[in-house]
Amino acid sequence: xxxxxxxxxxxxxxxxxxxxxxxxxxxxxxxxxxxxxxxxxxxxxxxxxxxxxxxxxxxxxxxxxxxxxxxxxxxxxxxxxxxxxxxxxxxxxxxxxxxxxxxxxxxxxxxxxxxxxxxxxxxxxxxxxxxxxxxx
Length: 136
Prior knowledge:
Structural class: alpha/beta
Number of domains: 1
Strand order of the largest sheet: 2-1-3-4-6-5
C-alpha cells in the first residue's frame, strides 16, 4: 500500500534514501506500509543525534510540536530535514496544528519550509530545513 496521490512512492517524496539514519516520532502504526518500498539500509534511530538526517514527526498538539522543533534545531545536524505531519481538516481528527501553526513555530527557530505533501488520507506533511545562511 504505497501512499502518494501522484503515484510517486512516499519514501521518495520524503527524500528517504538508501542507508539514511532517520527518526520517527508519533508515527501511525501503518507507517511502514506508507513508505513501502523503503530504500535499502535505512536505519531508524531511537534517539536524536547529529547522525539523524531525516525526522518525520507526527503531531496533533502545537505545544508538543513547539518543544520538539526546538530540540530538533538544537540537536540535529544543520543539513538534516524535518518533516512535520498533522491531520488534515477533512480527517476530522482533533488537532491544534495546521500548516500555518507549523510555520509560525518553525520560522523563528531558523527553519524554512520548502515542500508540502500528502502523507495519506489523514496526514499532511511540511518539509523543514535550516535556512542556508544558518547552516555554516
